[in-house]
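Onboarding guide, step 5: your first structure request.
Type a short instruction followed by the sequence, for example:

Predict the 3D structure of this protein.
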Amino acid sequence: MISRLQQRLRRQPGAARLVSVAGLLLIAAAATLGVRSGVTACGPQTSGPACTAGNAGWIVLLAAGVLAAIVAGSGVLWPLPAIWTVAALLSAARGDVGSTAFVVAATAVGVVALGAAIWIDVSPRARQRRARRDR
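The system replies with structure tokens like these:
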């Protein structure tokens, strides 16, 4: 099913770009909602608000954003963790932090995922250059 959607989007590059941008915006919204809701600061054992679907709503947004990026099939991975990290830090800078632990974890995971995505995106090209140079 996803491959059929990808084939249809390849025929319409404008639509593919639109879906790709929508995926990035969904990921930014997920990071912002996660920072503001404070997933780890909810429940009766804390002084935070009660745990609701809103506290974990960022997971649905994140999954939808990643799915949109996969369907759009841009071929590069690094914008996804980059937008996650930047949106989480900008949302935390506003001061509406629900949980400091979530901000630290989101930033750490974002930086590690960004490094891995850059390595995954760059390593095949570096191998191709070395192979051409050796010929």
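Each response can be followed by summary notes, for example: The helical segments are 2-11, 13-37, 57-72, 79-94, 100-134.
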